[in-house]
Amino acid sequence: MTVSSAPRPKMSLLVPLLAACFACLTPLSALAESAAQVEAPKAAAASVTVAYVKQSRMVGQVAISGTLVAKEEILVFPQVSGSTIDTLQVDIAESVTTGQILATLNDRTLTAQLAQARAEFARAKASVNQARSQIASAKASQTQAKAVLERAAALRRNGAGTQASLDQAIANEQTAAAALASANDGLLVAEAQRQQAQASLDIASLNLERATLRAPADGLISARSGQVGAIATSSGEPIFRMIRGGKIEVEAEVIETALGTISVGDPASLRIAGNSNVTGTVRRISPTVDPRSRLGTIRIAIADNAKLRTGVFASGEITTVERSSLAVPTTAVLTERSGSFVLVVSGNRLEKRGVTVGLIWNGKREILGGLAADEVVVARAGAFFGDGDTIRPIFPDIKAGAGASE
Q: Using CA atoms, how far apart are residues 357 and 348, in angstroms rounded to an integer?
């Protein structure tokens, strides 16, 4: 069987048709390639947030933590031992004034000792008077002996007296002189005994006075360890602990590297556990550092002591310096082995520039050298770029020079 087929188109007709199609596509591909070449540079320039270098308020602070302590603590000990405590007249947390009675001790023994000392003083005083009388008598005897000696000597010279009488007169006069010297020495001994008796009397009187414990200064009673009936002794715990003037302050430890930046009088902002924030000033800086912990101690006086208690935890910051300086965001400053640097934006190109940095405050870094006001730097992601890179800067809302220091 013979099968018939449709006639195929001749190749001579297809070639011109394909050529015409390729001719039409060539301008389109060239146009697309040209457009890609135009868009390529724009795609390579990344959008980067930048910031202006401007004057800002910079504050240097040192963080601290510590404990509330008494500015000055007074220990009240009994100054006489062996007596029992009769009364305790103040309690913890009471304010007292200078001379106020805090406690009394049993004074019966002390009263008897005072009476004994008074009697001994009276005896010593009488001995002094007696010694003075003996001196007066010895002087009179010596005067009489001298007169007798003078008469005996005159009689002997005239031949009316005997040598024996003269010798006896001389001996009597020497005896009278010795008696006067002894009487004078006796007065010195009596005076010494009187002074000793006076000292004993003063001690007995003072001990009796000390049987009443009084506040040595104005203050606040912070502790009371005495009990009625207990035997008072100065070798154990004090009967009372006082806070002079009720003044409480913070004792804090600071690392040695920061201790040198703190000065007496620097202001401090403190947070007291269980209380609202308070302010204070550095009152004292320890001249030594613990060689083991490398910490130094400071004392901070608190402006308002109301409702504060010793032993409570406190934390805060000490302001060591406050000034207006050029600053950039902290994220703009990068660090490498050679030092700190920023990427300065000039047009749309970056310049790597070394800077000298200072304080960090509120997300800003102080620039001490290397930049000028109103220059523009990469604010973030600077680690992904380098010197000479091209970027598309995104400027902040605040214009250069607008707004003064913060």
A: 25
